[in-house]
Amino acid sequence: MNSQTSINGDPETAPIAAPRTAGRASSMMRSFGTLFGSNNSVERRPPSQNANEHGYVEFGMQDPDRSGRTLGTFAGVFSPVALSMFSALVFIRVGFIVGNAGLYVTLLQFVIAYIILLFTVASVCAISTNGAIEGGGVYFMISRTLGLEFGGSIGTLFFLANVVGCAMAISGCVEGIMNNFGPGGYFSGAEGFLPDGSWWRFLFCTLINTSMLLVCLIGASLFAKTSVLILGIVTVCLLATYISFLAEGPKLVPTPDENTILPNTTQLIYTGLNTTTLTNNLGESYTQDYTSKGKMVDFATTFGVLFAGVTGIMAGANMSGELKSPSKSIPLGTLSAVAFTFVSYVILSFLMAFTTPHETMQNNYLFLLYVNFWPPFTAIGILTATFSTGLSNLIGSSRILEALSKDQVFGSFLNFILKGTWKGNPIAAVVSSWVLVECILLIGSLNMIAQINSVLFMLSYLATNLACLGIELTGAPNFRPLFKYFSWHTCLFGLIGTLVMMFVINPIYASSSIILCLLLVIALHLFSPATQSAQWGSISQALMFHQVRKYLLMLDPRKDHVKFWRPQMLLLVSSPRSSCPLVDFVNDMKKSGLYIIGHVRVGNHTDLDDATIEDNKQWLSFVDHMRVKAFAETTLANSVREGVQHLIRLSGIGAMKPNTIVLGFYDNEAPKDFFQSSTSPYKTDGFNTGDMQNFPIRRDGEEKHIDVTEYVEIISDILRMKKNLCLCRHFHRLDKHFISKSKHVKYIDVWPINVFDPKTENPFDVVSLFMMQLAVIMLAKWKHLTLRVFLCETNDTNSTAQFDTQDPNLPQMEIFSRMKLEQTLKSLRINAQIMEIQEWARDTEFTRHSRILKQFTQSAEATEGSVTEDNLNRSLLYMQRANQIIRERSDQTALSFIYLAAPPPIDSPDFREISARYMELLTELTAELPPTILVHGVSTVTSTTL
C-alpha cells in the first residue's frame, strides 16, 4: 500500500491518507541510548557548546576558565560601567551644564536621566537573570526576547550608538589634550607643543583611535585588567577636584583661544566657596556654545550632553561573553556603578555652583585645570576617563558586530567578521568599528556628537524596556528572573521616559533613528532567514497568543450575523504536489476568512510515535512555499472518511470554525507534479530530497487508494454536518498569471440550475445564492473579468401544464423570470450579465431525460431498484447534452460555478451502485470544461439589509 491514500487521483484531490510506517526499532534504540547515556546516542561537545535543541545554553554546563569567561563583578562590570558613565562629562562638560542650566535644572536633569537609567537597568537585570547570557550583551538579550526583526534592528542601532560613543570620548580626549598642550594650553604656553586646527584635531583623534585599536587587537582581557587601575586613577583625580573646590581660594581663569565669542584677553574669575556665587548659579543662564560656532544653548542641548555622558550602563552587559557569572555580575555591578556615579555627579555639580561663576563655566569648559591644587590631576583624569570610555565603547561595538554576524542577521553580508576572528578575538569586527569611528570623528564638535549619541542610546534603552515590558505582559511561565525589583510599571515608565526625552534632545535625530529602526525591521523581516526566529523565540508570538486568546473568547458564535458572513475554508488535500493551483486559488476565495489545509493520514493509534507531529512541520513548510495565509491540520485515523469527520468537527477554535469544505474531484485523470514541472510557478526542489519525500503522488496507472463509495459518503457527511460544499475539477489547468494577462479570457460563469432536478418554481434558492456569493468574491480578485449568470428556463415538472414552443404564456414567464433575477442581483448589489438559456424549456425530449435523475436525490425507498441500464443510458445522454450546452458557452470562461445536487441517500440498499452512477453523471457534466466548482450551499450567506 502506498504511503499515503488519496480520495482520488485528481491533482486537486481531497483528504489525504497515509498508513503509519512500521519498524520503530531504531527509534526505540536511540531512545534507550539517550536514556542510559550511550556513547552512540549523545554527541560529545566541548563545555562551551552544551546547548539544548532550542539553542539555549544549559546552566552549569560551562567551565569559565576553559570557555574564556574570566571576569568578575568589579573588573568586568562595575569598572567599565563607572568609567563609561564618567567619560568626557565628569571633567569637561559638567561645568558647561551647570553654567548654562543652573544648579536646580542640572540636578533635575541628573534625576531625570538617572531615573530613566535606573528603570532601564531594572529591565536589563530582569532579562539578564532570566537565563544564560552569551556574547553580544544587550543585543543578545533584546534579540532573544523581541525576536529577529526588532532584535537585529535595535542591535544594529546599539552598535552604531557604541561607535558614536567612542567617537565622542575620543573628541573629549583630544579637547583635553589641546587645552593642555596646544596653543595657549596650560602646560605649553602661548605657542603650544602641538599645532591646533580642525584637521590637526582629526589627526590626533585618529592617533588615539588607532591606539585603542591596538589595545583591542591584543584582547578585551587587557582592558579589563587595566580598567580597575584606570578607575582608581579617575577616582583619585575626582577626589583631588573636590578637595580643590574646598581648599582653593579665588583665582583667574584665562579664556581659551578656541573661544571666539570673548576676546582672548578677557580674564574669567573663580571665586572659591561663595554664597553669592551659589545664588547666581541656581537659575538658568543660557548663552552661546563656543565649540559649536556660536550655536545657542538650551535645555535640550545641556540634557543631550549630560545624558550622552551617562549612557554607559550597558558597558558591563556588553562584556557578558567574558563574565564568569553574567546573571549575578550584571545587576550587582551595574546598580552599584549607577549609584556611585550619581553621587559623584551631584557633589561635583553642587561644588561647581558654589565656587565658580556661570560666566567662567560657560566660556572655558576646562576651568577645572586652573582651579585644581595640582593641575596635572585634572589633565590625567580627563585623558584616562575619556580614553577608557572610548576603549570600552570600541570593544562593546566590536562584540555586538560579532554577535550580529554569528546570528546571520544580515545573511552572508557579515561573514568576513567570522572569518576575521583569531583566538576568540574578533579582529575584523574591531577594525570595522574603528573605520566607522573615524567617519563619525569628521563631525568635529563634541556637543553635536553627544546629541547623536544620546538619541541612539535612548532608542536602545527604549527597546530594552519594551522587551521586558512585553515579556512581563505575556505572563510567560518561563519568565522567572532572579532580579525581583522591577514590574511592568517600571518598564513602561522607562519606555515612555526615553521616548519623550529623545524628542526633547533633538526631534530630527530622534525621528531619523526611529525611521531607520523601522526600515531595518522591515528589511530583516523580508530578507533574513526565518530559522533564527524559530530558534530564539519571538516576543511577538507570545503577545499575539495573549491577545488572540483574549479576542477568541470574546468572539461569540451566537452573535454571528449573515451581514458579516465570510467563507471559512477547509481544503482537504491528498498530495500537495498535485494540489498547488487549488491551494493557491482557495487562498484567494477565502476573502480574509479562516483557511485550513486538512490532511488525513491513515494509520493505527497503537504505534509508538504519532507521525502527524513530523507531518505538521512538513505541511508548514509547504504553506510557507505556497505563501498562502493558511493553517495546516493533519490527523490520524483508521480511514479517510473517519479522518475527514475529525477535521470537520475539530478544526478551528471557538467561533472560528470552517463553514465551507472544499474537495478535489474524483476522476481518473493522472495527477501532475507541480513541484517538478519545469513550467510550473510552484516548482521547487525543497520537497524532493531527504525527509521531504513524504509527499507522494499517485502515478499514472497506479490504483486509487479510496473508492468512489467512500468519496460520496464523505460528501454526504459534509452536508449532514451542515457545511457548505465545493467540489473542484480541472484546477490543474488553472493559470492565474494567464488569466490576469489574457484578453481572451473574460468571464466568471454561474449556472444556478439544479441539472438533476431542473424547475422554475425557485431558481434562486440557498445553493444558487451561495454560488453567486463565491463568484463575487472571485470577481473582486479578477477585476478585469465579467460575471455572467445563466438564466435557464425550464418546464416545471411539478405542474400539470407542460409548455411547448407554441405556448402563448411562455414569453411572459421568461420576462417574469428575468425580472426576478435582475431584482435579486440588484438587491444583492451584484453587477452581472444575464444570459438566457432555453434548452431545458423548449427541448421536450431533453426535459424528459432529466426527470430520470430525480432518483439520485430522492429517499431510500424511492431509489430502491430504480437504477436500470436504460435509465442510466438516458441519464448519461442528458448529462452529455447539458455538458455541451455549458461547454459551448465557456470558450472565454476563466471559472465556472455549477449547482451540485445532493448525493443519493446514504441508507439506500444499493448505495454503492447508485453512488458510482452519481459520480459518473457528475463526471459527464463537467467533462472538458474550464476550472469548475460544483457548489452545494446549506446556509444563507447573503443579506439585502444594512
TrEMBL record:
<keyword id="KW-0472">Membrane</keyword>
<feature type="transmembrane region" description="Helical">
    <location>
        <begin position="427"/>
        <end position="449"/>
    </location>
</feature>
<dbReference type="GO" id="GO:0016020">
    <property type="term" value="C:membrane"/>
</dbReference>
<feature type="transmembrane region" description="Helical">
    <location>
        <begin position="227"/>
        <end position="247"/>
    </location>
</feature>
<feature type="transmembrane region" description="Helical">
    <location>
        <begin position="198"/>
        <end position="220"/>
    </location>
</feature>
<feature type="transmembrane region" description="Helical">
    <location>
        <begin position="485"/>
        <end position="503"/>
    </location>
</feature>
<feature type="domain" description="Amino acid permease/ SLC12A">
    <location>
        <begin position="82"/>
        <end position="570"/>
    </location>
</feature>
<keyword id="KW-1133">Transmembrane helix</keyword>
<feature type="transmembrane region" description="Helical">
    <location>
        <begin position="509"/>
        <end position="527"/>
    </location>
</feature>
<dbReference type="GO" id="GO:0055064">
    <property type="term" value="P:chloride ion homeostasis"/>
</dbReference>
<feature type="domain" description="SLC12A transporter C-terminal">
    <location>
        <begin position="581"/>
        <end position="667"/>
    </location>
</feature>
<feature type="transmembrane region" description="Helical">
    <location>
        <begin position="154"/>
        <end position="178"/>
    </location>
</feature>
<dbReference type="InterPro" id="IPR004842">
    <property type="entry name" value="SLC12A_fam"/>
</dbReference>
<dbReference type="Pfam" id="PF00324">
    <property type="entry name" value="AA_permease"/>
</dbReference>
<dbReference type="GO" id="GO:0055075">
    <property type="term" value="P:potassium ion homeostasis"/>
</dbReference>
<dbReference type="Pfam" id="PF03522">
    <property type="entry name" value="SLC12"/>
</dbReference>
<feature type="transmembrane region" description="Helical">
    <location>
        <begin position="373"/>
        <end position="396"/>
    </location>
</feature>
<feature type="transmembrane region" description="Helical">
    <location>
        <begin position="71"/>
        <end position="98"/>
    </location>
</feature>
<protein>
    <recommendedName>
        <fullName>Solute carrier family 12 member 9</fullName>
    </recommendedName>
</protein>
<feature type="transmembrane region" description="Helical">
    <location>
        <begin position="299"/>
        <end position="318"/>
    </location>
</feature>
<keyword id="KW-0813">Transport</keyword>
<feature type="transmembrane region" description="Helical">
    <location>
        <begin position="455"/>
        <end position="473"/>
    </location>
</feature>
<dbReference type="InterPro" id="IPR004841">
    <property type="entry name" value="AA-permease/SLC12A_dom"/>
</dbReference>
<feature type="transmembrane region" description="Helical">
    <location>
        <begin position="110"/>
        <end position="133"/>
    </location>
</feature>
<comment type="similarity">
    <text>Belongs to the SLC12A transporter family.</text>
</comment>
<keyword id="KW-0812">Transmembrane</keyword>
<dbReference type="InterPro" id="IPR018491">
    <property type="entry name" value="SLC12_C"/>
</dbReference>
<feature type="region of interest" description="Disordered">
    <location>
        <begin position="1"/>
        <end position="23"/>
    </location>
</feature>
<dbReference type="GO" id="GO:0015379">
    <property type="term" value="F:potassium:chloride symporter activity"/>
</dbReference>
<feature type="transmembrane region" description="Helical">
    <location>
        <begin position="330"/>
        <end position="353"/>
    </location>
</feature>
<dbReference type="GO" id="GO:0006884">
    <property type="term" value="P:cell volume homeostasis"/>
</dbReference>
